[in-house]
């Protein structure tokens, strides 16, 4: 172990460890990229890929991000951007859950899609993309549909669950499962020019409140469709919430929903009642 640390420290420049040095260490000592990255962060060495993070995220916090596991449920319009941003942020473990393959109508907005990927599983594209942009991140691809029956197994050991689904019914099942497992959930939804984001911590019922009048059907996305830009905006807000949850920083979108109108460039905040038990405990 001392030999590895010496090797890495000898290659530091301004406290930064280059990808070339990480790659060389992995090959020389027979280690995975993940092991080398964690070892570097544990010993105060900032991988150079994260150097633009370090004015806002300390090396200790970067290690905390790296040791986190985030489940992304849905790998389409929202999910593709979320997975990409989580990997670039430095989340060490990503569980990508989606039962679908890419179809031609995905090409206008889904980051992981391409003509060459048509007919391929979305979760496999997620794995390939993360291996390309940040090989130190471990992706677990699960080609399955999320539901309450398999939810506890799919979310086992997860730090945060991120909703990138296109079904209200499954969203509500995800919210229920996260409550049971006491996992924070970041909710996002899109449709046409519009989207919204909310964060639900264990014990909250924000997602259930948002859809309290829902009867049946997939929701507004099916009716309005989605352009290229709406998923990117909402996904970025979701990833920001994930980062804040893990680091315990900032003000979360808790008990409130951020509603985004990109047509008129308006953002509105809608508050939801805080559960009585939380008020009593305050």
Automatic annotation (TrEMBL):
- Pfam families per UniProt: ThiF
Q: Specify the superkingdom.
A: Bacteria
> SUPFAM superfamilies from the entry?
Activating enzymes of the ubiquitin-like proteins
Q: Cite a single GO MF annotation.
A: ubiquitin-like modifier activating enzyme activity
Q: The THIF-type NAD/FAD binding fold domain covers which part of the protein?
A: 50-270
Tell me which Gene Ontology terms the entry assigns under biological process: cyclic threonylcarbamoyladenosine biosynthetic process
Q: Which residues form a coiled coil?
A: none
The record's listing under Gene3D superfamilies reads: NAD(P)-binding Rossmann-like Domain
Give the transmembrane region(s).
none
Q: What name does this protein carry?
A: UBA/THIF-type NAD/FAD binding protein
């Amino acid at each position: 172990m001392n030999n590895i640390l010496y090797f890495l420290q000898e290659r530091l420049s301004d406290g930064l460890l280059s990808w070339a040095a990480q790659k060389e260490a992995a090959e020389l000592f027979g280690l995975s990229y993940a092991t080398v990255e964690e070892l570097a962060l544990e010993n105060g060495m900032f991988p150079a890929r994260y150097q633009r993070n370090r004015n806002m995220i300390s090396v200790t916090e970067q290690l905390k991000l790296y040791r986190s596991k985030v489940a992304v449920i849905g790998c389409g319009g929202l999910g593709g951007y979320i997975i990409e941003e989580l990997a670039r942020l430095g989340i060490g473990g990503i569980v990508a859950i989606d039962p679908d393959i890419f179809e031609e109508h995905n090409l206008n907005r889904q980051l992981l899609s391409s003509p060459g990927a048509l007919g391929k599983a979305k979760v496999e594209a997620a794995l390939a993309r993360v291996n390309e942009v940040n090989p130190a991140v471990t992706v677990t691809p699960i080609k399955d549909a999320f539901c309450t029956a398999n939810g506890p197994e799919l979310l086992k050991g997860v730090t945060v669950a991120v909703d990138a689904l296109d079904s209200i019914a499954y969203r509500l099942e995800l919210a229920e499962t996260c409550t049971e497992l006491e996992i924070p959930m970041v909710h996002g939804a899109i449709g046409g020019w519009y989207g919204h984001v909310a964060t639900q911590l264990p014990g909250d019922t924000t997602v259930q409140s948002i859809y309290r009048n829902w009867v049946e059907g997939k929701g507004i996305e099916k009716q309005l469709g989605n352009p290229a830009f709406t998923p990117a905006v909402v996904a970025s807000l979701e990833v920001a919430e994930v980062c804040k949850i893990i680091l315990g920083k900032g003000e979360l979108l808790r008990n409130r929903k951020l509603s985004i109108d990109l047509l008129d460039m308006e953002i509105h905040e809608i508050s939801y009642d805080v559960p009585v038990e939380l008020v009593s405990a305050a």
